[in-house]
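USER:
I would value a second opinion on how I read folds in token form. Give me a protein, with the fold worked out from its sequence. Write it directly below this note and I will take it from there.

ASSISTANT:
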Amino acid sequence: MKLVPTSLMKHAAIAGLCLAAMNGARADAFAQAVLVIDNFRLLHSSGAAFKSTDFTMLDGTNSAHATASLNGVASTAIPQNRGILSGTGPDVAHQFVGLPNPPRAENNFTAFSGTPPVPGTFGYADQNMTGSAMSIGAQQAGVRAETRADASLANDGEAAGDSDVGTSTAFNFMLGVGESITFAFDGTPFTQAYASTGSGMETNAIARLSWSVNIMNLQTGQMVFAYQPGELNGYGNVSRTDSFPGMSTYNPGKLSFTATTPMLKASETYQLTINQTTLANALQDTVAVPEPGSLAIFGLGLLGMSLMARRRN
């Protein structure tokens, strides 16, 4: 029997092990959530927009916050509050940790194009709100509220990134004349989650968004109206894990919504609350599972080492 030279087996073994290491599967995870609410208005039953003068009492604020984090390092914007009669909305500075720096320009609410590859390793969050839900003087009714959150992990180690953004409006009011209020607006939701194949059992990517409006009677303590459309809530929650790799996307495009309250009394005080939130989270495992090709190459390396041991014996 012709024996294979020891030096050749040694080189084959080393080459096989090195190729296996080079061809290990990446442990990438990515999530993004973007929600744009546009032309939000409070309407009379006639279809005309409410004016600030239609209320005998009106007081409240528009508030916003944004936080981004990566591997335990967080960046949080100073929360902003704007009076609802000021005619201006909050616009917190975008928050980001990681690279690229920044991942997106300030007030850029265009989603990243499809993955893979993932766009970097970072946590990112941003928010902007303009306009008013009612006519204030010469300013016409119409609010645009934009929020986004991104978490991207493009390295092979253990890392976690998460971002959350929130915008809320809360005000107390009393109508000059008892009537119902119709909420009319457009909404454009977008969520996406991606996890690479063989990225490890702990890898996951989650993207969520939520939007709701509620009215409570402050004198009776009863909730008289609640609206939480599924298209801007649970329908848009997407996730991916190592056991369910690939990409999930929720992108229904621009949607129109209307909802009308029951009759509200002129003699009673109500509190209206609107909440808008986007959340993205990504986590990847410490050890990536090798791809089949890598396992085969690794096996060749082990075989070479085994032949070398047998030859010495």
